[in-house]
Design a protein that fits this description.
The protein is mainly alpha-helical. It contains five helices and no strands. α1 (5-15) crosses α3 (36-43) and α2 packs across α3 (36-43). The longest helix has 11 residues, at 5-15. The radius of gyration is 11 Å and the shape is globular. The mean pLDDT is 92.
């Protein structure tokens, strides 16, 4: 897979009760210019996530960046 963040991002987004569109809107507010389509590609493991994006996504979801990288059981 192109990235390991995708499945964790989907899980955390759903846990927060957000749609991809809702998460994209929140990301815009935190300074991460990302679209719903890009989030879809990340969750499908078709697009890599750079380190800055990991931090901003985690901040948006109010989790540790490590939770996006390794997840929690």
């Amino acid at each position: 897979p192109a990235n390991i963040v995708g499945p964790q991002l989907r899980r955390l987004r759903q846990r927060a009760g957000l749609t991809q569109e809702g998460l994209a809107a929140r990301c815009q507010l935190t300074g991460l210019d990302i679209s719903r389509g890009t989030l879809s590609q990340i969750e499908a493991q078709l697009r890599c996530v750079i380190d800055e994006e990991v931090v901003l996504l985690a901040n948006t979801l109010k989790v540790s960046p490590l939770e996006l990288l390794i997840g929690k059981k």
